[in-house]
Design goal:
32% helix, alpha/beta
């Protein structure tokens, strides 16, 4: 089996729980560390699926690797290859499919309630998760739903939290989090967070962390399993 290619854009935004999920199922994957200047493949020929992680940059920034990743996503979708995106990764997928990516009305950071939408696609792809779930968020931009895609999730502070296009899933929220990742992000952001209704303090993000992560991992298990079933 060809490996899943996972694109990392910053050192502390790796695959997180997705890496555990793939390892447990003995699915090979290979990291492409864009943050370390690793070359982006020209084609998807040596991959079974593509995964794009988060990062602080915008998909609208004039960075050469962004155009390369957009081209790779378009190539994968044309070949009916599964694609998965988390936060920046979801925004890259949306842009590759022709949708806008732009500033969200507010930054959304921390643990916030996210709702399933009442449509057939949400009932299919999110069948085993509750109607409302507490999911982790860390973003200032958002995406429109691409033409031909269906929205899956929304939150109070961001209308478009996830979409599905054929066998491709794009998320604005972070379902891949682990306790060490949350702790690392909070540590990296010390003194930078402007706490508001939509932006939690570091202390709040770390409160009941193990219990929150346990619930989030169950949600991720369900979503990743459904994505895997679409291959």
């Amino acid at each position: 089996m060809s490996p899943v290619l996972i694109f990392r854009h910053i050192a502390h935004e790796g695959p997180g729980y997705l890496g555990d999920f793939l390892q447990h199922r003995k699915i090979p994957y290979r990291m492409i560390c864009v943050d370390q200047g690793e070359a982006i493949p020209d084609s998807v020929d040596q991959a079974s699926a593509l995964v794009f992680m988060g990062g602080p940059m915008s998909v609208n920034d004039p960075l050469p690797w962004i155009a390369q990743e957009l081209h790779l996503i378009q190539q994968a979708i044309s070949n009916y290859m599964p694609v998965l995106g988390h936060c920046l990764g979801g925004q890259l997928m949306a842009k590759a499919l022709g949708a806008r990516v732009y500033a969200n009305p507010v930054s959304e950071i921390g643990w916030h309630i996210t709702e399933k939408l009442p449509n057939a696609e949400s009932r299919d792809w999110l069948a085993l998760i509750p109607g409302q779930s507490e999911i982790f968020h860390w973003h200032g931009e958002t995406f429109d739903i691409p033409v031909g895609a269906k929205p899956l999730l929304q939150s109070r502070f961001c209308q478009n939290q996830a979409f599905v296009y054929r066998n491709c899933l794009g998320f604005q929220c972070h379902i891949e989090m682990t306790a060490p990742l949350v702790q690392k992000w909070v540590e990296e952001s010390k003194g930078e967070l402007l706490v508001s209704e939509s932006v939690q303090s570091g202390e709040e993000m770390l409160r009941n962390l193990d219990a929150r992560i346990e619930k989030l991992n169950r949600i991720a298990d369900s979503i990743y399993s459904r994505w895997l079933a679409s291959w």
